[in-house]
Amino acid sequence: MPLDLLHDRIEHGLPLCLADGVDSAVLAVRKQIRRGAKVIKICATGGVLSRIDSPTAAQFNNSELEAMVEEATRTNLLVAAHAHGTSGIIAALNAGVKTIEHGSYLDDEAIALMKEKGAIPVATRFIQVNGVRNPQNMPPGSFKKILVVEQENLRSYKAAIKAGVKIALGTDLGLSFEASNFNHGMNGHEFALDAYSRLRDSVEAGMTPLQAIEAGTATAPETLGPQAPLSGQLKEGYDADFIALCEDPVADIRVLARPDKVTHVWKGGESFKSAGRSVGLWSA
């Protein structure tokens, strides 16, 4: 994203901050807390959609990372790190970050550190596979990046699963448009991609269907820590957020990628979808 466009969006309410140096990093976290943030997400490495940085390049030094984690922890918030490259992942983990979003270039040291610190990787397979399949959705430079990053992400994800790292599912989706092929109604594809990679001949990524379901339901709330104390279980007194399906996802995980197979949706105990009830894009 061009820097002038980023500044313009920040000025008009996009919940982002640029930070350089320890004092600036602390101020950035405090700004997000004042805006009501429930989790602090930092960009520990470059990305795919950004124009001039490399996904493997670290973006903060250790002092900056530690300061941001310390400030978030002061108000009982966990920190998530967008991190593709190995050095940025390891630095974020050493600083106390709870979740690694993407984690595309994991090595043995990073995987061991995740297990040691109880950190959770969120591989975001769906949006990466979707990017590879739809070059028209991104600039040519970004498409060249995703072709490489997606393969590294899959390799790293398999390694983390094989090593027994605790996994949570997340889609990296923050938008929903009628014309989009990755809107919120398509989130269930993340389950299928975590059990089976649909990109090339159903290559197994290493999870069983039940493990993928657990990663998206029981484990996912752990990425929010104290901010989601009553999520992740079907239990009296817990948040009643759940769905009903007309087919068994343990028998075929791809059922979760089919909105027409979701017969009921409850959010906070309130029914948002049921048989015979018309549901719009934003209410599903």
Protein model, in words:
With 284 residues, the protein is α/β, with parallel strands linked by helices. It has two domains: 3-234, Metal-dependent hydrolases (TIM Barrel, Alpha-Beta Barrel); 240-283, Urease, subunit C, domain 1 (Roll). Helices cover 37% and strands 12% of the residues. It has nine helices and nine strands. The strands form three sheets. A four-stranded parallel beta sheet has the order 1-2-3-4. Strands 7-8-9 form a three-stranded antiparallel beta sheet, with no helix packed on it. Helix 8 packs across helix 9 (209-217). The longest helix has 24 residues, at 140-163. Residues 17-270 form the Amidohydrolase-related domain. One of its GO terms (molecular function) is hydrolase activity, acting on carbon-nitrogen (but not peptide) bonds. Pfam families: Amidohydro_1. It comes from Teratosphaeria nubilosa.
DSSP strand tally: 9
Shape: globular
CATH superfamily of the largest domain: Metal-dependent hydrolases
Output mean pLDDT: 86
Could you give the topology of this structure?
Layout: H1 3-11, H2 22-34, E1 40-43, H3 62-74, E2 79-83, H4 86-95, E3 99-102, H5 108-117, E4 120-122, H6 125-133, H7 140-163, H8 189-195, E5 196-197, E6 203-204, H9 209-217, E7 242-245, E8 262-267, E9 270-273
Parallel strand pairs: 1-2, 2-3, 3-4
Antiparallel strand pairs: 5-6, 7-8, 8-9
Helix pairs in contact: 2-3, 3-4, 4-5, 6-7, 8-9
